[in-house]
Amino acid sequence: MNNELKPCPFCGDSVEIEDSVSCLDITCCCSMSIQKCDYLTIKQRETLNMDTYKYSDKAEQIAVDTFVSKWNKRVK
Q1: What pTM was estimated for this model as a whole?
Q2: Most CB contacts within 10 A, which of 7, 40, 42, 53?
Q3: Which of these, 18, 1, 66, lies nearest to 40 by C-alpha position?
Q4: What is the extent of the structural domain holding 46?
Q5: What tens digit of pLDDT does each residue of 42-60 get?
């Protein structure tokens, strides 16, 4: 999947994903944040490592892919 983020639809600024422990965030004129677990199945949530507070690489990628897809979706 292409993980390239489109610019902000309002201010036109380039944006990047900030990865925190349980969230993915975009900060610009219209900040957006998601909880990673909202986009993971129960099995994928079970991959959470309590020492690092990270999910498996596959689960982390699913969360990022979903976030990028939501951000890049433009209503016509």
Answers
A1: 0.82
A2: 40
A3: 66
A4: 1-65
A5: 999 999 999 998 999 999 9
The pLDDT assigned to 28 comes to 85
Asked whether residue 33 is domain-assigned, the answer is: yes
Q: How many CB atoms lie within 10 A of CB 24?
A: 22
74 domain residue, yes or no: no
Intra-chain end-to-end CA distance of the chain, in Å: 22
Domain count, the chain: 1
Residue 7 lies in a domain: yes
From residue 41, alpha-carbon distances to 38, 48, 55, 58, 62 in Å are 8, 12, 12, 12, 10
Query: 70 by DSSP, 3-state: which?
Result: helix
The reply to whether 46 falls in a domain is yes
